[in-house]
Amino acid sequence: MKVQSSTIENKYLRVKSINIGACLYEVYDKQKKINLILNLGSTKNYGSKNFYVGATCGRYAGRISNSRFKIKNKIYKLDGNEGKNTLHGGKIGFDRLEWKIKHHSKNKIIYQLLSKNLDQGFPGDLNSECIFEIKNKSLFIKYQYKSSALTHVSLTNHSYWNLNKSKKETIFNHDLKINSEKYLEVTNKLIPTGKIKKVKNTINNFNKFQNIGKKIDIIKNKKIKRVSNTINQLGFDLTYCIKKNSKNYLASLKNKKTNIQLDFYSNLPGVQLYTSQGLRYKNKLAPYQGVCLETQHYPDAPNNKNFPSSLIKPKKLYKYFTKINIS
Q1: How many domains does the chain have?
Q2: What is the pLDDT of residues 75-108, one digit of tens each?
Q3: In sequence order, what E strands does 179-290 have?
Q4: CB–CB of 237/181 below 8 Å?
Q5: For the domain that residue 149 is a member of, what is the CATH number?
Q6: What is the span of the domain harbouring residue 201?
Q7: DSSP labels for 196-227?
Q8: Rounded mean pLDDT of 264-292?
Q9: Res 9: pLDDT
């Protein structure tokens, strides 16, 4: 696999991406002179497995229970890569593959990938595109895809955001707001139980700006009862159900020290909050160094009829976007 990096830029932003995993490598704010995401250092490191840093995850972002689902009474067995379950598409998910560059201009790049029928067990030949585009101070991440057969798809970008000047600093000085009143209850293996819970009066409430460090302190100091279905590994790894609104507003992340705020918008139904408590990469990346806000379909939706459907029809083009305003 040949690792190839590409850059798009305007007077406000410089965005560098990598063809392996259609991966974001750098989102550089030219005015503040800060790269807003974590990366693996040398681009050569992207040829080997990592913690999905900046990558496009697929065919299915998140977890699928028992590495299987049923479509029209036919059971499809998937490649399991997390015990009995499938995470982010299996052992050789989209994050591990070489995407082709279909288009590259000053402010837009389009990556393309063909995933053949039964790749990692998923039915249908799936043609996917990942588009990174910048307009003024906004970064757009767009996914569009079409399949030859009924199948389940959920693509997301797995960037670890860190708004500090030094990336060695943790995200504990970041404040987060999520436009959600509900979250998915999960088992201790992080598989949704099917129950949708209210955030009100729980540690999971980010309806107003909350300091991430204070929340994690509460969990670490066991000031709250540790419950396996809300907290994992002394941090958050949780799907929030986005409250529908006309602007598709999803969440905001800010850092008062550097005076940077990100506002997220998306037409996807959920967002996965992950506070990187399990992150480790050589001597470069460590726990709590980034926060992920992964816009996606609900994990295990193929096995939960009461979740918004991730099933796609043959030969129909599906389009999803995430917009990040940087101020």
Answers
A1: 1
A2: 999 999 999 999 999 999 999 999 999 999 999 9
A3: 180-186, 192-198, 210-211, 237-242, 249-255, 260-266, 270-274
A4: no
A5: 2.70.98.10
A6: 5-326
A7: EEE-TTSTT--SS-EEHHHHHHHHHTT-S---
A8: 97
A9: 98
Contact 110, 129 (CB under 8 A): yes
- For residues 263 and 161, give the distance between their C-alpha atoms in angstroms, rounded to a whole number: 12
Residue 263, pLDDT above cutoff 70: yes
Residue 237 is encoded by which pair of tokens?
């790894």
Token representation of residue 62? 């998140």
pLDDT of 124 > 90? The answer is yes
Separation between Cα atoms, residue 11 and residue 241, nearest integer Å: 35
Closest CA to 241 of 266, 268, 269: 269
Q: How far is Cα 153 from Cα 250, in angstroms, rounded to an integer?
A: 21
Q: Is residue 134 pLDDT above 80, yes or no?
A: yes
- Nearby residues of 10 by Cβ (< 8 Å), 6 or more positions away: 106, 107, 134, 135, 136
Q: Residue 173: CB partners within 8 Å, gap ≥ 6?
A: 164, 211, 213, 255, 256, 257
Taking only Cα atoms into account, the Rg of the chain, rounded to an integer number of angstroms, comes to 19
Joined together, the tokens standing for residue 274 give 């992950």
Give the 3-state secondary structure of residue 17.
strand
Task: Quickly tell me which residue has 């980034």 as its tokens.
Answer: 290
- Over residues 283-294, the mean pLDDT reads 96
pTM of structure: 0.96
